[in-house]
UniProtKB/TrEMBL annotation:
InterPro entries: CTU2 (IPR019407), Rossmann-like_a/b/a_fold (IPR014729). Gene3D superfamilies: HUPs. It comes from Oncorhynchus kisutch. Pfam families: CTU2. Its main location: cytoplasm. This is Cytoplasmic tRNA 2-thiolation protein 2.
Amino acid sequence: MCQVDEEYNGQLEHRVTPRVSKKCVKCKENTAVLIIRAGDAFCRGCFKEYFIHKFRAMLGKNRVIFPGEKVILAVSGGPASSSMLSQVREGLSRDAPKKLRFVPGIIYIDEGGASGQSMEERERAVAQLESVFRATNYHYHIVHLEQVLSLPSSVLEAGSSATEKPQTGSSYKAAVDQFIQTKKNQHPDLSLENAQSHLSSLSMHEVENGVTSPITPEHTQALQKLFASVRTLTAKEDLLHTLRQHLILHTARTQGYTKVMMGDSCSRLAIKLLSNISLGRGASLATDTGFSDPRYGDVVIVRPMRDYSSKEIAYYNRMFDIPSVFIPGLDTKAQDKASIQHLTESFVTKLQTDFPSTVSTIYRIGTSEHHTCGTGTGWQQQLPELHQQHIIPPSVL
């Protein structure tokens, strides 16, 4: 080992620890308080502006959500979904320069019955989340996972998309003009600014918020029996994802929501992409990781947080006191090799520590797959790039 140091001492690369002792790259005046990537140092104010702008730009670039639409936010209590809820509140506030114009709602799926939590622990977690939801004045739904046992099997089938609007620039502009004109006709005394901000008050429904229906010990036992019949943690996580999707889609349809916002971050989607490849689901990468998932017809799933890394979200939540609630899941305290999903997460996270471009490379390949999914060759063309980035070993190729 000493011989290696003597022969290659001049060639060995030493990692330079970044220091937050320089000016902000945006305003060039204030001292930077954090570094997102190499060379991207932001002060507090510029980082908040950058974070908010990225969320608005993602929605504005895709133009999937039309004015006046009912959009339900799937909030799990974690950092990403809590940050997404904060961005929606920011966009619907009166002080926002470019207000969001949809009607928001919130859904939380209580999965404690599947992870073995006691009823007291579940009630404590629900109470913490309800305090956050009430502060938004949005209509919210607390749905227990046990309720999925009484749903029809046709929930995941594509519904009628007759009411779906064409996603073009001209039709979007026409929808905006029609929305503002409708508000003027309904409230002639409102100005243009008040007509736009009036939308935020529409989310305060007369319907009572809270749990949709009570659960019984028999329901919980049936759910636990279902998960006990599944042998591997990989299959259990797949089952949990399917049941969760059932409940979200069913609630969206019964309550009149046409869009579902998911809090999947760039880091989470990179892990999901590699997990799906390992599970043999490469054909559905575009819809599983893209901005919009229109597979269910009348309800479209959107992912406005897909450009944020978990590091950016953690910094933002810490700096601006965004509340989040930790709720243990199926893989909490599990070993790295307990499931394919958990192993992939550990692999990507550790690789990201040594190679900071890991997540962005996987994410970029997933984006290119979204554009080339019609030919079915996008992923195969990107395999050599993954090998060059040391993400896929040569044996896979």
